[in-house]
Automatic annotation (TrEMBL):
Keyword Nucleus attributed: no
Organism lineage: Bacteria, Pseudomonadati, Pseudomonadota, Alphaproteobacteria, Hyphomicrobiales
Location of the protein in the cell: Cytoplasm
Organism: Aminobacter aminovorans (Chelatobacter heintzii)
Known cofactor(s): a divalent metal cation
Cross-referenced PANTHER family: BIFUNCTIONAL DTTP/UTP PYROPHOSPHATASE/METHYLTRANSFERASE PROTEIN-RELATED, BIFUNCTIONAL DTTP_UTP PYROPHOSPHATASE_METHYLTRANSFERASE PROTEIN-RELATED
GO biological process, one term: nucleotide metabolic process
Function: Nucleoside triphosphate pyrophosphatase that hydrolyzes 7-methyl-GTP (m(7)GTP). May have a dual role in cell division arrest and in preventing the incorporation of modified nucleotides into cellular nucleic acids.
Keywords: Cytoplasm, Hydrolase, Nucleotide metabolism
Listed name of the protein: 7-methyl-GTP pyrophosphatase
Catalyses which reaction(s): N(7)-methyl-GTP + H2O = N(7)-methyl-GMP + diphosphate + H(+)
Amino acid sequence: MTEKLILASGSPFRKAMLENAGVPVDAIPADLDERALEAPLAESGATPEEVALVLAEAKAVAVSEEHPGRLVLGCDQTLSLGDEVFHKPDDMEGARRHLLKLSGKTHQLNSAVVLVRDGETLWRHVAIASLTMRALDPAFIGRHLARVGKKALSSVGAYQIEGEGIQLFDKVEGDHFTIVGLPLLPVLKELRQLGAIDG
């Protein structure tokens, strides 16, 4: 029997990935101040992977407490360039600065997923993708951002690899699902093991 999963995220991409894979899902975003949760982690020296896991788990636990008995999937993704963790840019100038900083370098996308029921964590996982951005001319960055517009503000790297953002890259190592923010194959495997989907 297939159990209806709760996705503790408002991401339409994550919801669509699960539905396209045949997983029935209710999207109920967690109401958390992520930056407030993240601040002590940064001070403690937590890795970008650990930050993503803590945030994913906090989201899943918060939603789980409001929906007893339901299986909840929490997700979070951090972008790291060395020790620096990037957040979604606040405005187009922030997006421009992100792309200038990432230009010609390899960064990591750290996609964390956590499954929780009744406030208890059942499973956690982090998948990592490495992306090498080509050296970008500042004038090209300006033209690119003018074309993609506010979409640049919806992602930590100021790009959507599933759209025109793919033109920014020389090399991508990691699966598409991890890059878009939900390592789908490990999630499906764990849902089968938990008996939540037919396996």
